[in-house]
Input
Amino acid sequence: MRLSYFIARRYLFSRKKQNAINIISAISTVGVAIGTTALIVILSVFNGIDLFLQKSTDSLTPDIVIFPAEGKFMHFDSTFYDRMDAIPEIAYYNPVIEENALLKYGERLRPVVVKGVTEDFPEVTGFANSIVEGGFRLKDRDVYEAVVGAGVAVEVGLGLNFLTPMMFYYPDKRASSLNSALNTEYLFPAGIFSSQQEIDGKLVITDIDFARKLFLLDDEISKVELKLKGEKYIGRVKEQLQQLAGSHYRVEDKYELNRSFYAMMRSEKLVVFLILLFILLIASFNIVGSISMLILDKKEDLVVYKALGMPLNRIVSVFKTEGNLITCIGAFIGVVLGVAICLLQENYGLIKLREGGYLLEAYPVKLIFGDIVLIIFTVLCIGYVASYFPVKYLVRKLIK
Output
């Protein structure tokens, strides 16, 4: 193997009879380097975007949610809360009332989701980071207030400086006449938040007591949202809670709550990886051309090697090793460049987003070690396949 490597290295760096071989070898190396760099940079950008979206979603998505198995609302008995207190992995839990209602602001109507929470909701969830205008206030003395999604605010033309309250309508099943068939309550906007377009376009967050008034509830709630001390505990705590809850409650984690979101992130990254991989595969054909021309240039050496008693598989390994060297050098350069570009962007934000009210100033980037290992392994496999089969065919044909 050392002999094959020694000869391959001499062939790679020595001047050939045909100068085009050197040029094609250099182009092959550059092609592999550019493809590797592109894979690292693009996948790291996707990782950064996914991480940003996940953080934005997590501010409104708990790790685990407990729902009623039947119906919209449920009574939680105090013993169940005591049992949750006994689970050390739970950082906090929050009773929530969430239901659809009709919002009227001025002359505009829009169906929304009203979410009633407790006053400490932003502190325990990190939701305060999503506030883009105003602040998080649910009650000012005897007046109830709300934090409205940016999409809802734009749709109904809501502004924090306006004195007009928001009107909410909800069917009153206890009403005795059509005139009183809708329960009506008023809210004043205190802040506007921006998280995800789907959430921003439908959600209004307010005090849990206001939600009880609007939806005509006593001590019922819609669900209990839990945050854990780490994502690694989700599976274990979910099993414990399901055993405690029994058949009366349904327990789901954040991955089940946001199936489409996480599936979209995985599929987008996979599609981009496959597209770039296909481009790299096309670029690797330069290696085939480079090695093929080298074999034709060194066909006299093949006869000498055979006369000296070098077995056929050893002759094949010489040129196969050269193809691997081109791939390894290109992959190394590509990894260094890709990692350097990502680190510069991650730390200094060199490439900025255009003006347009983005929550980020620069493109988000996140390097993941597993991605780099996968890219290196894939590039080396492509280089190996690209050099092995043409070399084996040409060497056998020329020696015969």
User: Anything to note?
Assistant: The CA atoms of residues 101 and 278 lie 49 Å apart.
